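Backbone-to-sequence.
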């Protein structure tokens, strides 16, 4: 047998190590790529569903509850909550997450509210620093007053996460969402990329809250 024949026989009888390693690498990269693309697609579909739900939120007609809670993040939320209180939608109002440097007089002046309403029926919460803190502050206030039904006032894009945080701590109270509407049509978002970023950020935060509740893992 010639040397060339011997070399050919050896090549046929031994496993192609380099070929297997290259195949394994390609398979790994394809698998990772598939999961990355699938994750991106799932995120995109979930975001569209989240957007549709948020855009469809609308205030309740003639709401009526034991009390009202407004989560800070804009004076429009507080102004709307004070109007609901003045209309008799609830007996008392909590404004949660107020900056300690902001006085009651400043809030009353900015919302153009009557002093007697604030003196009798408005509580200011200064402890909350984020939505999770809003939930804790709100639930403590509800339990202290033994309320059973509460109107929750915040922006529409903030409502899903706010409800998820509060309902995680309080399964007994009935919460009635009263969204402060932010125009979220596709044309509005196209004209204001900042709103798209706000929605995407809120969606990610909402996913983290839901994931935490399902897995128990705090990120």
């Amino acid at each position: 047998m010639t040397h060339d024949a011997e070399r050919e026989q050896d090549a046929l009888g031994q496993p192609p190590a380099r070929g297997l390693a290259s195949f394994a690498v390609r398979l790994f990269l394809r698998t990772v790529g598939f999961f990355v693309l699938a994750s991106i697609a799932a995120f995109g579909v979930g975001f569209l569903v989240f957007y549709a739900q948020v855009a469809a939120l609308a205030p309740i007609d003639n709401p009526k509850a034991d009390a009202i809670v407004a989560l800070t993040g804009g004076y429009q939320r507080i102004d709307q909550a004070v109007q609901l209180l003045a209309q008799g939608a609830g007996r008392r109002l909590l404004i949660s997450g107020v900056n300690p440097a902001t006085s009651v007089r400043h809030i009353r002046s900015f919302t153009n509210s009557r002093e007697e309403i604030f003196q009798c029926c408005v509580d200011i919460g200064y402890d909350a620093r984020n939505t999770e803190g809003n939930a804790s502050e709100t639930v403590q206030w509800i339990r202290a007053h033994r309320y059973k039904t509460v109107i929750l006032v915040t922006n529409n894009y903030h409502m899903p996460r706010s409800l998820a945080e509060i309902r995680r701590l309080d399964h007994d109270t009935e919460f009635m969402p009263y969204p402060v509407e932010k125009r979220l049509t596709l044309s509005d978002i196209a004209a204001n990329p900042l709103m798209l970023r706000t929605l995407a950020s809120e969606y990610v935060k909402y996913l983290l809250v839901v994931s935490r509740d399902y897995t128990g893992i705090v990120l």
